[in-house]
Structures are given as C-alpha cells and as structure tokens.
Amino acid sequence: MLPIALLPTTADQAPLIRNLYQFYSYESSDWEQEDVEVDGRFYIHDEHLQRYWQDEGWSAHLVLADGFIAGFVLVERSELPGINALELADLFILKKYRRQGIGQAVALQLLAGEGDWLLRCYAQDPPAVAFCKAVLANLSRPAQAIALDDHPELLNFLVTGARH
Fold it and tell me: Which of 24, 46, 88, 93 is 20 to 30 Å from 125 at the Cα level?
C-alpha cells in the first residue's frame, strides 16, 4: 500500500474541500437523489462547511497517498441527544486510490483515537455498508449497532473507548 497521511486542513483550505466534495456529491447523487444547481455544481451549505474549522470537535482532513491528494475526511462532534461521540461524518477516496486499503486505514486510524466514535452509513449504499462492516471487523475496540431516529435510512454503530 502507498504511504498514507491524514493532514488537518485550515479554514483557508475550505475551497479545496468544497471542490473535492463535488466528487463526493456526484458519486452519492444516484441514491441521495440530488440534482445539480443552475451553475452545474452540487449544493454545499457553506455555513455548515465552515463549522469544520470553527466548532470544537469538528475537523476536515486531506487524505494523502504517496504525497498526493487521495481524498478527504470530515469529523463532527455528534449533536444527537445522548450521544457523546465524534462522528466519522464523510470519508471520500478518489477512484484512482480505491481498493488499496486507504479508506479503511484512515477510518481505523481515526476510530482508534481517544473517546467514543459514531460510524454511520446509508443502508442503500452497498459499497458503504461493505466498507463499514470491514472497518468494524478490524477495529481494536468494541463497537455495537445502535438505533437512532434522526435518519432511518442510516445504519449506526457506536465505537467505545474500551479496548479489546
């Protein structure tokens, strides 16, 4: 596997994350039923995007493979009642870098961090479900499926801080 790195971004890199997010939106548009705006781009809520550099527990990272941009990962502090965890909100790897274990390595690195984590995936996105199952199977700490009411189309897993 190529050497990979997770590079935290700064607010001045928001346009870079916004550009990469267009690819993410395109790939998920078939099951999210999103259309492009009149300018030919997918909608991005800029106020929400800014939270990755403003809110505690929120962050945006570039995924580098052999020094090249291979994707991004967005982390949020969960705002769901009763869930005190960070959430692996969005993870996107460019097609050139897929099927090389990069996404799984990034997810495992983050989920091995301190505290509890929430991992969610869309049930109607088979590659995402397979990815989540593979990540969960390789975790060094316990995870359990949990039911949450905010988005019934999501599968939810709570990764706890206790080690195996």
Answer: 46
Kind of pairing between the strands at 59-65 and 68-77: antiparallel
Name the 3-class secondary structure at 140: coil
- Could you list the residue range(s) of the whole structural domain that residue 104 is in? 4-115
Token pair listed for 1: 């596997």
- Which regions of the chain are under pLDDT 50? 164
Nearest to 23 by CA among 109, 75, 92: 92
Tokens, residue 5: 């790195």
Residue 56 lies in a domain: yes
Give me the amino acid identity at 141.
R
Q: What would the pLDDT profile of 131-155 be if each residue is shown by its tens digit?
A: 999 999 999 888 999 888 888 888 9
Q: How many helices (H) and strands (E) does the chain have?
A: 4, 7
Q: Is residue 34 part of a domain?
A: yes
CATH number at residue 88: 3.40.630.30
b/e code 60-94 from CB counts within 10 Å (16+ = b): bbbbbbeeeebbbbbbbbbeeeebebbbbbbbbbb
* pTM score, whole prediction: 0.88
